[in-house]
UniProtKB/TrEMBL annotation:
<dbReference type="GO" id="GO:0000287">
    <property type="term" value="F:magnesium ion binding"/>
</dbReference>
<dbReference type="InterPro" id="IPR029061">
    <property type="entry name" value="THDP-binding"/>
</dbReference>
<dbReference type="InterPro" id="IPR005474">
    <property type="entry name" value="Transketolase_N"/>
</dbReference>
<dbReference type="Pfam" id="PF00456">
    <property type="entry name" value="Transketolase_N"/>
</dbReference>
<protein>
    <submittedName>
        <fullName>Transketolase</fullName>
    </submittedName>
</protein>
<feature type="domain" description="Transketolase N-terminal">
    <location>
        <begin position="5"/>
        <end position="256"/>
    </location>
</feature>
Length: 272
């Protein structure tokens, strides 16, 4: 819950932030940094570390929050998000400990993950590369070029996650570009594919912590999520994509997070 609170605080600043996509990915980030990946905040550039690429770089506030909670940077630094001179920008940059690549130009992250995975194999390391993509991002052709390359190279140490919240900036993803059957599409590209409840940390850990699922194949997890999950008056709403929370809405979000368990209900409560 602290990750969501940090995101709300950053989105209440003058720059605002991509709250909806950060909230849909919170449990994925929690599972990866809490239980799955081999990383050490005291040695963020250790050669044997796993690499993580936030391909949906606009959800940087979520990444900053989990990095702070994991010890990569002081929690107090989150207050500097979006301020002049801060290294916590709207999209992540490598000046932030734990950030492997500057991202946000959608469609590039999976190719970066391929490079990290291939480099690990060539160096004889057992480390893995994890990539978190948005589902709207799958409209980029470069994603599928990287998908072909990863399968052709047999990058079994590459793990990709699709944050399948079914919404993007301009509306429902399937109304903009039909994607289903998404799992079968990825399988046809040579990937091992599973689906999971993207808000169940235990289920995410069991799946992401057991890769590769098939020898010689990269792994793709479709995480079924809700945009803005955790705050009923924002959940499932396109309006949660990017927000600048007023003082009143910030207080309301914080109150919901502190006093109610995270549920799977999207909610249709009007955001007042």
């Amino acid at each position: 819950m602290r990750v969501r609170e940090h995101v709300a605080d950053m989105c209440a600043g003058p720059e605002g932030g991509h709250l909806g996509g950060a909230y849909s990915a919170t449990e994925v980030l929690t599972a990866l940094y809490g239980d799955v990946m081999t990383v050490d905040p005291a040695r963020p550039t250790a050669p044997e570390r796993d690499r993580f690429v936030l391909s949906k770089g606009h959800a940087a506030v979520g990444l900053y929050a989990i990095l702070a909670e994991s010890g990569f940077l002081p929690v107090e630094e989150l207050r500097e998000y979006g301020q002049p001179g801060s290294r916590l920008m709207g999209h992540p940059v490598r000046a932030v400990p734990g950030v492997e690549a500057a991202t946000g130009s959608l469609g590039h992250g999976l190719a970066l993950g391929c490079g990290f995975a291939l480099a690990a194999r060539l160096d004889g390391r057992s480390s893995k590369a994890f990539v978190l993509m948005g589902d709207g991002e799958l409209q980029e052709g470069s994603v599928w070029e990287a998908a072909i390359g990863a399968a052709s190279l047999g990058l079994e140490n590459l793990v990709a996650v699709v944050d399948r919240n079914s919404l993007q900036l301009t509306g429902p993803t399937n109304e903009i570009a039909a994607m289903e059957p998404l799992a079968e599409r990825w399988r046809s590209f040579g990937w091992a594919v599973r689906e999971a409840d993207g808000h169940d940390v235990g289920e995410l850990v069991r799946n992401l912590g057991s890769t590769p699922w098939e020898p010689g194949r990269p792994s793709l997890l479709i995480a079924r999520t809700v945009k803005g999950h955790g705050v009923p008056f924002l959940a499932g709403q396109v309006a949660s994509h990017y927000v600048t929370l007023s003082e009143r809405k910030h207080t309301r979000v914080r109150s919901v997070l502190r006093n109610a368990p995270v549920s799977h209900n999207t909610g249709k409560d009007e955001a007042r």
